[in-house]
Amino acid sequence: MSADIRTKVGENGRLVIPSTFRKALGIDRGGEVILHLDQDGIQITTTRLRIARAQRIVRKYIKPGVSLVDELLAERRAEAKKELERG
Q1: 22 within 8 A of 32, measured Cβ to Cβ
Q2: DSSP secondary-structure letter at 38?
Q3: Other CB atoms closer than 10 Å to residue 50's CB: what's the count?
Q4: Residue 41 forms beta bridges with which residues?
Q5: Sequence-ordered alpha helix ranges (H) in 12-86
Q6: Tens digits of residue pLDDT in 10-34
Q7: Mean pLDDT over all residues of the chain?
Q8: Residue 42 has pLDDT above 70, yes or no
Q9: C-alpha angle 9-51-44 in degrees, rounded to nearest 5
Q10: Cβ neighbours of residue 68 closer than 8 Å, sequence gap 6 or more
Q11: Residue 74 pLDDT > 90
Q12: Least buried of 30, 47, 71, 82, by fewest C-beta within 10 Å?
């Protein structure tokens, strides 16, 4: 989705996000958003979208069929076993 909508900043600096944008981002009433300020302006996103972006980035470096969760659990179990043996 790519669109520009002009809106005004209200009382106490409040900004209304148009309903079409909220629906596209999956933001419900009272939902939390993340604001990021950079040299070009403010970016509004959600935790869900940030996680999805991180997953897309990581996926590029993981071989198909590899489970990072399984690898992490195996590492933790190996470390716990070492600790018990030192114990």
Answers
A1: no
A2: E
A3: 12
A4: 38
A5: 19-25, 47-59, 68-86
A6: 999 999 899 999 999 999 988 999 9
A7: 91
A8: yes
A9: 10
A10: 58, 62
A11: yes
A12: 30
CA pair distance 87, 77, nearest whole angstrom: 15
Residue 33 carries which side chain, given as an amino acid letter?
Answer: V
Asked whether the predicted pLDDT for residue 40 surpasses 90, the reply is yes
Task: Return the closest-CA partner of residue 36 out of 53, 23, 11, 59.
Answer: 53
Alpha-carbon distance values, 80 to 23, 33, 68, 69, 76 (Å): 45, 38, 18, 16, 6
**Would you say residue 39 has pLDDT above 90?**
yes
Question: Which structure tokens are listed for 22?
Answer: 């909220």
CB 44 within 8 A of CB 27: no
User: How confident is the model at residue 1, as a pLDDT?
Assistant: 59
54 touches 47 (CB < 8 A) = no
Token pair for 25: 């981002």
